[in-house]
Write a structure and sequence with these properties.
With 122 residues, this protein is of the alpha/beta class. The protein has one domain: Rhodanese-like domain (Oxidized Rhodanese, domain 1). The chain has helices at residues 19-22, 36-39, 54-60, 78-89, 102-108, and strands at residues 15-17, 29-32, 50-51, 70-73, 96-99, 120-121. It has a 6-stranded parallel beta sheet with strand order 1-5-4-2-3-6. It starts with 14 loop residues before the first strand and ends with a strand.
């Protein structure tokens, strides 16, 4: 069961979150799946995010316990949506969240971003 009861469960077995649902939470592992160069340009990144390239997630999942509450983040939500489906269907993750709209929405809602490196690689 999701640790965020208001997060809707999709038919693919992952949950959807909006930026406000994520802001300030310390019980979620945020994983940005974009190339590192994108984290310091354009949309920036969420401070303290973990990073793992989307192609690595697609190939081998995440090096975390399967019940870790993890939120995937990308530029606009499309790539992270595909990856959360794979984490559930192919790798057996049970607490997977998709940040709807990705960093495009995060920035559009004027949520805080960092343009200097604050991430940790997974």
């Amino acid at each position: 069961m999701a640790r965020i009861p208001e997060a809707p469960l999709t038919r693919h077995g992952y949950y959807e979150l909006r930026p406000l649902d994520v802001l300030g939470r310390t019980d979620l592992v945020l994983v940005d799946v974009r190339p590192l160069v994108d984290l310091t340009r354009g949309f920036g990144h969420i401070a303290g995010v973990r990073t793992r390239l989307g192609e690595e997630v697609r190939k081998s999942g995440l090096p975390l316990p399967k019940d870790t509450p993890v939120v995937l983040v990308c530029n606009n939500g499309h790539e992270s949506r595909r990856l959360v489906i794979a984490l559930v269907a192919e790798f057996g993750f049970t607490e997977v969240f998709h940040l709807v709209g990705g960093m495009l929405r995060w920035n559009g809602e004027e949520r805080p971003v960092s343009m200097t490196p604050t991430w940790t690689a997974l």
